[in-house]
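Review box. Two proteins, two foldings.
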Amino acid sequence: MGQFFFDVPETAQDFISRSLWKDAYICGIEGVPWQSRNEFDGSRLTITRGIESSGKLFLTCPVEGVGYCTLNTCSLRPLEEAHLLLLELARGSCYRARIQSDAWERAGLTLTSTFLELMADGTQRFLDAAQRRGDPGVASEYAIEAISILEQANAELGDSYAIQSVSFRKQRENQLGTLLAAAVVPPSPTEPDHEEAFCAAFNSAAVRLSWADIETDSGRFDYDAAEQSIRWCASKGLRVIGGPLLDFRERLMPHWLYLLEDDFESLLQSVCNFAERTVLKLRGSVQLWNCASGLNTPGPLKLDDEQIMRLAVGILQTVRRNDPNTPAIMMFDQPFGEYLAKHRDAISPLHFADAIARSGLGMAGFGLDVRVNYASGATLPRSAIDFGQMIDRWGTLGLPLLVQLSIPGDRGADEKAIYPLEPLPETSSELDASSDQLRIASPLIRTLLAKHIVHGIVWDGWSDALPHVLSHSGLIDAENEPRPLLDYLTRVRRDFLA
């Protein structure tokens, strides 16, 4: 058994207590989180896992000037003596900034003066911390300063890469062919209040074909709302992404499924029957099928790996058999795989995707569902650099990607959310939640536009004034007023997309 001990002096205890230390994990060279048990007694963080080998600690912390950010150490060995936590996190930030900037500069990236100044200041603060290791309190104070400066440098570096890469793409492609869509719950977005704004911001719409809403009782189907949304999209010249047909999350599955909880064969038959009926009903009006979402993460039904795979293959086969001319994808939740640190028997998202891709069923690509800044069931907040590296890893599978993003634009209860999640607490009073949504989302969207492998971007949430899936994720707030991110997406559509 391998244990990692990290000391936290009194001067840094508040910094760590506000971190998401319960969600911290250790990753090996392969990038897959290991299941671990985490303990923090106020002065020492202990990470325990089943194997004794080196690895990197990943820990999400509130960083001044950045907000919540997932930091990581360099590779460490499990030792009996403790590592100084803040110093190792600062070392990791310094290493990432220097290595990534060197690699990109060699590839032709022009480093900005802002980045170079931040890099120099942050490196000096890290060296100050390292030289005072004998005084853990002082060293940690310098390390916290170094982390803040270096993570701002990483943010600047990631933005420079995205902006210059998108400019390079624009030189070769007058208009990018990327799909830009908002996910809507039928009959939205047919309401007249913001239909012009929707068409100005998006060239596509992801119409949820929720099994729970369409087959409210076993054997009774109602497609009226879905057909209304799809007809509206067709009248506006918008391409339609249909689905997910199966969303394997609590509250998004039919309530009557508990009757089939102990009968997997009947469950599989019900899933495939719904998929077949839906595809036959709507084929010709949907340009891309999203077959399923969330099968790789633990869901409301207790299924083993073989059953999960059979569900995925069964629904994909059904869609391809009944509509062979329309491309079909499968969506994977939390693509960094953070949930693996808490669930021993969970499936690695990348390995699951690779297995389905090798099945020979003609899948057209992968979908990645990235929910950020929620306290549970979400992707931990990442820098644009880390986000881009994750996209590159998925790109090695050789299929196009569609990325679905959602970030809360408000806090507190959300009565119209179908799948409510609690947003992370604010880290600064400088920005309201809707402005913070724009601050976090814009560099991620620019990073996606810079990647040739990304063929589609979906914002998961149109209006909080209407029924929607995730808490506060809408581009229209609960008072039916546009949030700043909608204007940003409108400018992206106008300037870059066909």
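Next protein.
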Amino acid sequence: MENLIERYKSFLDNGKTERECVKEVIERAEKEGYKNLDSVSTLSPGDKVYVVEYGKAIALYHIGKGDMEKGMNVLGAHIDSPRLDIKMNPLYESDGIVYLDTHYYGGITNYLRVALPLALHGVVAKKDGTVVNVVIGEDPSDPVLGISDLLI
């Protein structure tokens, strides 16, 4: 049981957003023999495949030996990352401080976040269509992110 707890804690540390969770699931699934469905031309009993949607959702399939008409087992889970989302044009500066325009998601309790060091995890979608992963605040040498006060 302790090993399971440690693995789960590791998963939570590495998966702070939906995209990071999907990346972590892919790494772990591939170690267990799962392959991306896009790389497979046919499926046979016993095959293990996965499908990723928009980098934010994943479905894993273990192809069974029996006829589907006789039924199948389905296990589903939801990736939810309570967080502050940064809006599309978020950046502004005032009095030498950079501010991010945000909104909350996932039932976050705002007053618990005030005056705590936070990390920024996400992606920046560039005009050319490329996506850049961003993580700021996990390394002690990173700039400090925080919520100084709650607006009314």
